[in-house]
């Protein structure tokens, strides 16, 4: 969103939009994968700042045998992962942290995977997952990782 202010004009697309374009054009083909229950965490900047909600979900729906389950707070009402505003670098006080609250919502939908499309969200949610689900029952993955796993050979 800031590039025009810097005097440059070009279209910037998020990797979820690019992956969706590749899938729709047939440039990448996805094979039938394992059955998977997944949910999507909406990154703040992708959603609230850029109004991109559907492309990541459409990419995930293209992964066959994947069942998408929405968390109760999603899209425009989604909670932050806890990294927003530089919080990723701040030692938090004791008490309920925002990333803990968000991960509880992941647990509520009984997903095997929480997918996201932001490296900071991946870091924050994975840190909580390692504490709250040390057995690895819930994995945190970027949508690009899920696409790579589903690529046809």
UniProtKB/TrEMBL annotation:
The keyword Secreted does not apply. Residues 39-126 form the Cysteine-rich domain. GO terms for cellular component: plasma membrane. Keywords: 4Fe-4S, Iron, Iron-sulfur, Metal-binding, Oxidoreductase. GO terms for molecular function: 4 iron, 4 sulfur cluster binding; metal ion binding; oxidoreductase activity. This is Cysteine-rich domain-containing protein. It comes from marine sediment metagenome. The lineage of its organism: unclassified sequences, metagenomes, ecological metagenomes.
